[in-house]
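Lab meeting, item 3. Inverse folding demo.
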């Protein structure tokens, strides 16, 4: 079996988890498909196997790749979405970061994870993506996001005006630091920190969440995920920021943007004992009484 391995931190703090994973691969006769930037680190610690494949932003994943392991935190897992794209390769997040809401498999469970995959003892959790259309070239050939698409002020402390339309009809103008359109997956991320609601992954919804709005009579708004949300932006600054998950590009007021549901999904691997409610309770301490 071919399993891809991605890590973006590339530092000594991560090497023990990478060594453990390479040993687990060897134990179960897995051929690793390794992100090219990790290879020098593995060579330095003498754990690079004799048989392996590579991938990068230019070199595609090996066609026999069955799974992709994201070793890091939730941000690392978000990175992997651009490598998987339409390929329908499931992603397993191994958490060696802090929260690990998406990357919910602990580093000590690597053997268990690989054995579960080999036995077929797992479930696939399909997650909706957002797709961005722009009036000018933006984000190359990866115009999609798992968590959210957002618009922000860039170099000025002044608010920006974001004229927002829902299915072609005017919704409102947000005077704010920015605006987020989040998927159910992204509802527990940046949108939540800005006052947005938590949405279950199976809900066919998106949420529009303003960032520090000046007009206090606007609140996060849940919409159907078959909606198209479009934007026109004004502000005193020459440039603004458009972000897709952790990626960002500068834009100006000449850009028109539209957000809709992507035509494909990303599958997250869910092992035995892992589910959204359990993650909500253990990671966000949902309903826990901390007064004692």
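The presenter then showed the designed sequence:
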């Amino acid at each position: 079996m071919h399993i891809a391995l991605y890590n973006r931190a590339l530092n000594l703090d991560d090497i023990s988890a990478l060594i453990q994973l390479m040993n687990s691969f060897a134990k179960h006769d897995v051929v690793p498909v390794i992100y090219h930037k990790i290879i020098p680190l593995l060579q330095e610690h003498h754990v690079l196997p004799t048989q392996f494949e590579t991938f990068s932003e230019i070199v595609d994943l090996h066609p026999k790749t069955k799974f992709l392991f994201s070793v890091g935190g939730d941000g690392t897992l978000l990175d992997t979405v651009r490598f998987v794209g339409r390929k329908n390769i499931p992603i397993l997040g191994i958490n060696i970061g802090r929260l690990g809401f998406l990357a919910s498999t602990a580093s000590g469970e690597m053997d268990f994870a690989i054995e579960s995959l080999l036995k077929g003892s797992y479930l696939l959790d399909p997650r909706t993506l957002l797709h961005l259309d722009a009036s000018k070239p933006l984000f190359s050939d990866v115009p999609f996001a798992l968590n959210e698409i957002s618009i922000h002020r860039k170099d000025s402390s002044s608010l920006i005006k974001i004229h927002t339309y829902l299915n072609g009809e005017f919704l409102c103008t947000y005077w704010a630091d920015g605006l987020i359109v989040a998927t159910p997956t992204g509802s527990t991320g940046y949108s939540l920190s800005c006052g947005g609601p938590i949405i279950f992954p199976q809900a066919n919804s998106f949420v529009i969440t303003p960032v520090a709005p000046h007009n206090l009579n606007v609140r996060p708004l849940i919409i159907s995920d078959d909606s198209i949300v479009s934007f026109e932006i004004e502000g005193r600054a020459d440039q603004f920021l458009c972000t897709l998950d952790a990626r960002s590009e500068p834009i100006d007021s000449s850009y028109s943007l539209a957000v809709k549901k992507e035509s494909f999904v990303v599958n997250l691997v869910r092992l035995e004992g892992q589910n959204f409610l359990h993650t909500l309770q253990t990671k966000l301490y949902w309903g826990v009484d901390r007064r004692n």
